[in-house]
Amino acid sequence: MSKSSQASKRPYVVAMVLGTALSALGPSTSMAGPKLDATEHAVADMSRYCTTCWRNARLDPSCWGDCTQEVLVRMLERITPDTWDRVLKDEGQERREFLRAIDTVKKRSQRQRKYAPVPADGVADRNGSHERRLADDRAAVHQAATELLSARQRRILQMSFDGWSVQDIAAKLKTPAERVSDEKYKAIRKLREHLA
Predict the structure, then answer these.
(1) With DSSP H G I counted as helix, E B as strand and the rest as coil, what are the percentages for the chain, rounded to 5?
(2) Under CATH, what is the fold of the domain 126-195?
(3) Residue 180 near residue 170 (C-beta atoms within 8 A)
(4) Domain with CATH 1.10.10.10 in the chain
(5) For 62-118, what is each residue's pLDDT tens digit?
(6) What φ, ψ does residue 94 adopt, rounded to 5°?
């Protein structure tokens, strides 16, 4: 890894470590020096604010920490940490960036939850099960038709399923329409009795 790529990733690592450590420590633990103490309190306050936002947005509590970390990373990219103490006090640029970061992370997390794949052993997909049931029913009908019906009856049923009228089928097969209608009726009755 090159030095420039290491340097470009450093703020992310710093934000993650700083955010995790300071969030876990809480506001009562002090660090060396007044500047670090102000940053520590700002991170703790921002973390509490984020937690309230995640709760109000009904995000899964297991993702709250990651969402807060992402907000802190976004803040590091846009605002210097020495001005973070103004995020929750002033109506300035710092607060707008903070709220924008929260909104972006919240929406991304909600989209992920909405489109997350369902595990195989999870909730069944009703549309998928309906389509599978239809496919199974069609396969059963096809199997029964192959076993029970004559080739002529199968052809009449297939043409009927494809939208052909009795008259069109009769013309195609060069058979009287009454004969086609009778064959179709007998074929459907055989299938119905077999599958019932």
Answers:
(1) 80, 0, 20
(2) Arc Repressor Mutant, subunit A (1.10.10)
(3) yes
(4) 126-195
(5) 888 899 999 888 888 888 888 888 888 878 888 888 889 989 998 888 887 666 565
(6) -60, -45
Copy the structure tokens of residue 158. 């297939």
Measured CA to CA, the distance from residue 29 to residue 67 in angstroms comes to 23
DSSP 8-state assignment for residue 175: -
Residue 102 and residue 71 in contact, taking contact as beta carbons nearer than 8 Å: yes
Distance of CA 13 to the CA centre of its chain: 28
The separation between CA 159 and the C-alpha centre of its own chain, rounded to angstroms, equals 41
186: CB partners within 8 A, 6+ apart: 153
Distance in angstroms (rounded) separating the CA atoms of residues 19 and 117: 30
Tokens 């936002």 found at: 53
